[in-house]
């Protein structure tokens, strides 16, 4: 499966910058859909006061998904790769 990688940066209340990638099927081109996936992830991380927009989240590149990522996307619609300060 070919996926789009959306590079995302969110400033946390403690001042650290949270960096994660949102991976979606390449056919998903609607920014609002991608932002909603990111907002779901932020809520799971108990970061409720942030709302994603094009300022924080941008299409970065396309790549081939691994089987693990593909399966997660098929189950959930998206996959998150945590990069920095996502704990």
Folded structure, characterized:
This protein is α+β, with helices and mostly antiparallel strands. It contains 2 helices and 4 strands. It has helices at 31-44, 67-76; strands at 2-11, 17-25, 57-64, 79-84. It has a 4-stranded antiparallel β-sheet. The longest helix has 14 residues, at 31-44. It is globular. The N and C termini lie far apart (28 Å). The model has no long low-confidence stretch (mean pLDDT 94).
Topology of helices and strands:
Layout lengths: L1 E10 L5 E9 L5 H14 L12 E8 L2 H10 L2 E6 L3
Antiparallel strand pairs: 1-2, 1-3, 2-4
Q: Please outline the major beta sheet.
A: 4 strands, antiparallel
Number of strands: 4
Mean pLDDT figure: 94
Helical fraction equals 25-40%
- Count the DSSP helices: 2
Taken from the alpha-carbon principal axes, the silhouette is: globular
Cα distance spanning the termini: 28 Å
> How does the helix and strand content classify structurally?
alpha+beta
Elements, N to C (H/E): EEHEHE
Percent of residues in β-strands = 35-45%
Give the neighbour order of strands across the main sheet.
3-1-2-4
Show unreliable segments: none
> What Rg, in angstroms, do the CA atoms define?
12 Å
Structural descriptors:
87 residues; alpha+beta; globular; 2 helices; 4 strands; four-stranded antiparallel sheet; single chain
Summarize the structure.
The chain is of the alpha+beta class and 87 residues long. Helices cover 28% and strands 38% of the residues.
